[in-house]
Amino acid sequence: MVFPWRRRKAGRLSAKKEDFEINSDMELAIPTHFRCPISLDLMKDPVTLSTGITYDRESIERWIEAGNQTCPVTNQVLRTFDQIPNHSIRKMIQGWCVENRSNGIERIPTPRIPVTPYEVSEICTRIMEATQRGDERRCRELVGKIKAWAKDSERNKTCILDNGAGRVLATSFDHFASVSMEKHACLLGEILSALTWMFPLGEEGQCKLGSTSSLRCMAWFLKGEDLSAKKTAALALRELLSLDNQQVNGLMKIEGISEDLFKIVEDPICPMVTKASLVIIYHMITQQETGSKLALGFVEMGLVSLILEILVESEKSLCEKALAVLDRICSHDEGRKEARRHALTMPVLVKKILRVSALATEFSISILLKMGKDEDGSAVVEALQVGAFQKVLVVLQVGCGEMTKVKATELLKLMNRYKDRLDCFGSSMDFKYLKRTY
Questions:
Q1: How large is the average pLDDT for residues 153-174?
Q2: Which residues form the U-box domain (predicted)?
């Protein structure tokens, strides 16, 4: 039996529940004049063009950067691309956000005024003047201002790059490095940390950063105890050598650079620095004149063992760079002999095929092919024992690059020569398939 008062109470609760569901489904309508005409989203940094139409800064900048020269709403040709901040609309939007805070609307922060090309040019001129005077304190202030601008937005970064700040900072770095690295260490570290995101620096900037004094300073940072300076030096050297391989010759003349790079790989600071160091090592050992000698030096230091440890557990980018260095080292007899001494070599290389990336697969097959050309054939037999044949065959079946295909085919033919020495294969069916296909 249900009492009447219980029935009425249940009805009221049901009505309240329905009202709540209706209200929760309602969406808060954004006023039309608060929306950007391009993205139709709430404007965060409203700016007005010469046509009188207001847009969100990010949206209209993308429109102009795409090559459009008209106003999106009026379709009028823009006489000027100046964007004037609309503070009235921005304050109204912020007030609306505060009023609707209970509905989950967050107040948009007051945007910073973006830096202009004139401001960048002016500060670059001041840096050059302070550099010529040898005024370290003033230079640090100005470099700090550039770094603060860059942190504000990507637009500021682009403006800084487009107006030659990289060239100016590289010139300043070269000047103070040639005077005294120890005396100006703090300033040099500040400049280098800013330069790491300014590449490419242009021909003049790269020439200044690749000078003898600049390279010696970066090598000095690599040798020091300051981890932040080590990181910026490694990143700057990686970018410099990737853009201009001729700078490698100057770097290799610096005493102890190989040992310093090896120590960074041996005692990693972070994956980014390890990858940068491996890229630098790769550029060094690929040089025609002295690359072989440097590669043997790294082998004697124990770089092969370190690379194998890295390959056991590493992410894609680090794995690719480690395999690239190992591939180059295995181009030399001593490098292959050192790799053969490690029990991990073959299992790790075979495991990386088709497990990381197409580039890692190519490097792994290349290393196996180089090691397999030794006279006794023990490397090929060991590779077969850990499943190399099946893996390489799948590479050819699923498709791969032309260079990888050539190397994989050659490796399969090499394996076919030693099939009789392999106990783990009871049938030679796969080898017959290889003979028939290739």
A1: 91
A2: 29-103
